[in-house]
Write a structure and sequence with these properties.
- This protein has a single domain, classed as Alpha-Beta Complex (Spore Coat Polysaccharide Biosynthesis Protein SpsA, Chain A).
- Helix content is about 30%, strand content about 25%.
- It has seven helices and twelve strands.
- Strands 1, 2, 5, 6, 7, 8, 11 and 12 form an eight-stranded mixed β-sheet that branches.
- Strand 3 and strand 4 form a beta hairpin.
- It starts with a strand and ends with a helix.
């Protein structure tokens, strides 16, 4: 389906090593209430009418497994699965390179954020006006302190919590803007921790919209327990 801004393509990076998760098995395939993490994400994207295509990005060794899961769960918007790169940024860039329609809108969502809601995805897409990108986030609750370095944990500064946001995905961009930013960053050998930071680096305007504290990223085994608690709470409230 097309929006007035163009065809929407969802890129789902899931090629990370998951070192903090502590398992040999790739984290996107870990079960969450008997369903692989990445399938929760893909099914939500599948059910958003505005999205025309979904491009998962997996490690080379996991492409066949992902393809089998896509078929099993009938994720029809997945037409191709792209091999990942050394870093998350390389993986997303690999997916951007296969997007054919330059008028597209690109939505990037982490494969291991399984609790994202369709309404938040739609809201992100609708807010892509008068800016170069939209990201979702939540105000930080804790006091944030800056240290000298990872090795020197002496406090350098205490940041103003009132102006700090914890950024999540989805993140939404006009294709040509994000593709250009990725190209420049690759040439500069510059790596960032999220996609929007690349557009920011080259002078683009990014808008934050309110996300959800439930839209967690599965990073450690304890996060599975938290996600299950949220899902069970939803079931109880229905």
């Amino acid at each position: 389906m097309k929006t007035k801004r163009g065809r929407v393509v969802a890129i789902v990076p899931a090629a990370g090593l998951g070192k903090r998760f502590g398992e040999e098995k790739n984290k996107p395939f870990h079960p969450l209430m008997e369903k692989p993490l990445i399938i929760w994400t893909l099914q939500t994207l599948q059910n958003v009418d505005e999205i025309a295509e979904i491009i998962p990005v997996l490690k080379e060794d996991d492409l066949i497994v992902c393809g089998d899961l896509v078929e099993k769960y009938n994720i029809t918007k997945v037409k191709r699965i792209v091999p990942g790169g050394q870093e998350r940024q390389d993986s997303v860039y690999n997916a951007l390179k296969v997007v054919d329609d330059k008028t597209s809108v690109v939505l990037i969502h982490d494969g291991v954020r399984p609790l994202v809601e369709a309404d938040l995805i739609r809201k992100s897409l609708s807010e892509l006006e008068d800016c170069d990108g939209v990201v979702v986030g939540v105000p930080v609750k804790d006091t944030i302190k800056e240290v000298e370095s990872q090795d020197d944990l002496i406090v350098k500064n205490t940041l103003n919590r009132n102006i700090l946001w914890a950024i999540q995905t989805p993140q939404v961009f006009f294709f040509e803007k994000i593709r250009d930013a990725y190209g420049k960053a690759t040439a500069d050998k510059y790596y960032a921790t999220d996609d929007a930071a690349l557009i920011e680096r080259y002078g683009g305007k990014i808008k934050i919209i309110m996300g959800s504290y439930r839209n967690i990223k599965i990073t450690t085994p304890e996060d599975i327990d938290i996600a299950e608690a949220f899902l069970k709470a939803n079931q109880t409230s229905l």
